[in-house]
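sry for the spam today, last one i promise. struct tokens for design, 763 residues
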């Protein structure tokens, strides 16, 4: 290979002569000849190829096993439809490459068994075929490609020009993607690693928490543990760090039942971020659907990351906590036609990606440059094989699908009878785990909240918007809020779906943190280097009168009260609540509502907040409300409310009350209101317990008051309740543990400004 400086010298004349097509062609020919010479020299220098036995086309990927005559080795199998030849490339510890042609071809799968190849071996593929971007063919054997089924990846994608299948710096960018780059990419790209499948889950005990009892806690493996003072420094930011007792103790103290991990599939950083000295912190840029992201491993990247991930899952399971993965099967890190050639593009571009009518271009329903072609059998197989692998061999309990509407598209439109959804519904492994859809994408007709079929739950952004608007005083009436607090029956009461089809959230990784939601109204994303153009402008936030941090004690007290209101509303609502790591302790991102590239203190959880009394009190409130939810089945119903009387006394399972103590009429729902009373009867809970006995509980009255001034609320009398005991009052910084004030039914109760009061009915 020539040096980078030599390559730059060769390409500079091309830039100067961009206006002269003849000169450009001559310079291009010179570049190609230099590249071909370098490529040929590299091939001649390669070590002699070892013997390759026929092997088997199944399973796909690299699988270490005992072959014929008891000889240990590894079977390699790669689907590459349309390819003309495939070379398996083995790399030693110095990076020297040995190429092994795979000559066996079965149903478009190239395969071979290589004796003596053991776990820890690094490898990749070179796939030969036509270079014809005008028809979507982009084979380029100069580029080393990552095995889509690689179970571990060693190295980091840095995206120099050599890893692009086309000449990235071609003067005319309009046609740059059509000009093939023949430089060898092997020195610049990570390699797959052969992993020994020597582990099983016999001793693992999955929590198997029912959906109705679930509380999800969204966290980032690195961000959650990077600054934790009680985790050893060498484990911070890793799977082992999340498995540490100090991390797990926080989760169990809160009372969450599942962690939802931001992407842990091997991912790459985008070129535009690397040019600015930033990284993709969130990881929504996958390139290896079977491999735990290597940078989160404390034990090594030559396959050790696999065992470390499994030990993390076991530790969480032992604490009664399920593991849900946020997965990105809608697109890959190869981006659009001007993106790098890392894996699928070079294996079979037309087979893996949705292409436009002009096959040079990619259909983009994701906003990330490409979309996987899920209706293609081999793509569907890649995704489902990956999902089953993470369940059966890595021990995870469910998945949250990023931009799931893109996966549900048939040829163009979103189709709830699509091959992807049909396969999931009948798969004996996948239909038994937790499935969460982000029910939208960026394409036409992509917003599908409430439309996914039974078995699926959904992120409910209509819950987010209604709750935010109520507490900032922006709801025109309370109709929408009523649906959201009680399980969103208008969206989910069809096809046998239950209230837990709604994953309720006020914040998520994407957007303001909860503290920033009450401290900022405008995004402050300058640190992302995109001129503050990135991130949503629709924040539905209220800064309590001052933009950003404040020294005013009254402003700060109001903000903490709003935090308590938002958290309490979320955790008392019917459906599955989702918390975001750090919201329970006042984490801030300084007003950045798109911190995807902030792998620093902005994107990490600041555990020093625990040293401040006001944030310790917020954690205590969160844990207390979750304890109430866990101990009272009326707060985690398995069926929708009927709103009908179930007994002669007229008591119903759900009732709504206005400030004056009367039941709300239809007209009340259409009128502006800052105060809402919600009565939940514990006497009429559908279903039976494990012994077949009826489920009964206390009854509760929740009063939500978003007004800026105190008000009064007349407590309902018979048959609703003879008396009421105050259980929670979010106007208080500290919550009393002893039984609260008891008030008789019919009493005018004082309600503090901007507060939630929860009262238990005293029989």
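last one done:
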């Amino acid at each position: 290979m020539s040096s980078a400086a030599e390559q730059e010298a060769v390409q500079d004349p091309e830039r100067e002569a961009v206006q002269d097509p003849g000169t450009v062609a001559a310079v291009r020919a010179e570049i190609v000849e230099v590249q071909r010479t370098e490529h040929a020299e590299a091939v001649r220098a390669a070590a002699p190829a070892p013997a390759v036995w026929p092997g088997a086309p199944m399973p796909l990927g690299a699988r270490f096993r005992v072959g014929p005559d008891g000889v240990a080795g590894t079977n390699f199998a790669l689907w590459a439809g349309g390819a003309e030849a495939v070379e398996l490339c083995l790399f030693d510890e110095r990076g020297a490459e040995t190429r092994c042609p795979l000559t066996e071809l079965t149903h478009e799968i190239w395969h071979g068994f290589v004796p003596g190849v053991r776990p820890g071996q690094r490898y990749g593929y070179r796939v030969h075929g036509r270079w014809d971007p005008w028809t979507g063919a982009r084979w380029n054997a100069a580029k080393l490609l990552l095995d889509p089924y690689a179970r571990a990846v060693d190295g980091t994608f840095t995206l120099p020009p050599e890893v692009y299948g086309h000449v990235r710096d071609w003067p005319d960018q309009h046609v740059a993607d059509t000009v093939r780059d023949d430089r060898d990419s092997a020195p610049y790209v990570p390699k797959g690693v052969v992993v020994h499948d020597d582990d099983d889950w016999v001793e693992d005990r999955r929590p198997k928490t029912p959906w109705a009892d679930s509380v999800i806690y969204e966290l980032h493996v690195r961000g959650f543990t990077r600054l934790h003072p009680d985790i050893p420094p060498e484990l911070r930011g890793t799977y082992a760090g999340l498995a540490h007792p100090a991390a797990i103790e926080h989760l169990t103290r809160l009372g969450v039942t599942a962690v939802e991990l931001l992407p842990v599939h091997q991912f790459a950083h985008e070129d535009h971020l690397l040019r600015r000295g930033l990284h993709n912190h969130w990881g929504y840029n996958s390139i290896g659907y079977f491999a735990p992201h290597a940078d989160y491993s404390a034990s090594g990247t030559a396959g050790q990351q696999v065992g470390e991930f499994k030990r993390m899952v076991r530790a969480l399971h032992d604490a009664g906590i399920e593991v849900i993965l946020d997965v990105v099967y809608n697109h890959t890190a190869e981006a659009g036609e001007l993106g790098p050639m890392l894996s699928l593009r070079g294996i079979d571009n037309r087979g893996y990606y949705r292409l436009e009518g002009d096959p040079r271009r990619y259909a983009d329903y994701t906003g990330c440059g490409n979309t996987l072609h899920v209706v293609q059998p081999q793509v569907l197989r890649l995704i489902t094989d990956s999902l089953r692998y993470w369940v059966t061999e890595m021990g995870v309990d469910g998945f949250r699908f990023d931009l799931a509407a893109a996966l549900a598209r048939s040829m163009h439109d979103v189709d709830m009878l699509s091959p992807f959804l049909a396969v999931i519904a009948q798969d004996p492994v996948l239909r038994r785990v937790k499935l969460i859809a982000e029910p939208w994408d960026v394409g036409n007709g992509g917003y599908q909240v409430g439309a996914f079929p039974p078995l699926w739950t959904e992120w409910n952004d209509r819950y987010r918007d209604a709750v935010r608007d109520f507490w900032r005083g922006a709801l025109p009436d309370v109709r929408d809020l009523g649906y959201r607090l009680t399980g969103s029956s208008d969206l989910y009461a069809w096809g046998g779906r239950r209230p837990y089809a709604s994953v309720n959230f006020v914040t998520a990784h994407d957007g303001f943190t909860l503290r920033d939601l009450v401290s900022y109204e405008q995004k402050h994303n300058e640190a992302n280097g995109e001129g503050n153009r990135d991130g949503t402008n629709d924040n539905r936030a209220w800064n309590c009168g001052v933009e950003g941090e404040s020294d005013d004690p009254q402003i700060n007290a109001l903000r903490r009260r709003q935090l308590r209101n938002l958290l309490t509303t979320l955790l008392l609502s019917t459906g599955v609540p989702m918390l975001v790591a750090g919201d329970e302790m006042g984490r801030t991102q300084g007003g950045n509502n798109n911190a995807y590239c902030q792998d620093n203190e902005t994107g990490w959880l600041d555990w020093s907040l625990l040293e401040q009394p006001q944030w310790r009190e917020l954690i205590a409130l969160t844990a207390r409300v979750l304890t109430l939810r866990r101990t009272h089945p009326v707060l985690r119903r398995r069926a929708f409310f009927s709103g009908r009387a179930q007994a002669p006394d007229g008591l119903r399972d759900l009732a709504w009350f206005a400030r004056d103590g009367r039941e709300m009429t239809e007209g009340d729902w259409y009128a502006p209101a800052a105060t809402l009373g919600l009565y939940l009867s514990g006497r009429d809970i559908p279903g039976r317990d494990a012994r077949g006995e009826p489920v009964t509980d206390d009854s509760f009255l929740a009063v939500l008051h978003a007004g800026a001034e105190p008000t009064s609320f007349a407590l309902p009398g018979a048959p609703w309740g003879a008396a009421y005991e105050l259980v929670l009052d979010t106007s208080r910084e500290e919550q009393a543990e002893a039984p609260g004030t008891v008030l008789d039914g019919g009493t005018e109760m004082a309600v503090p400004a901007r507060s939630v009061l929860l009262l238990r009915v005293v029989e």
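Residues 1-29 have pLDDT under 50 and may be disordered. ok im logging off now
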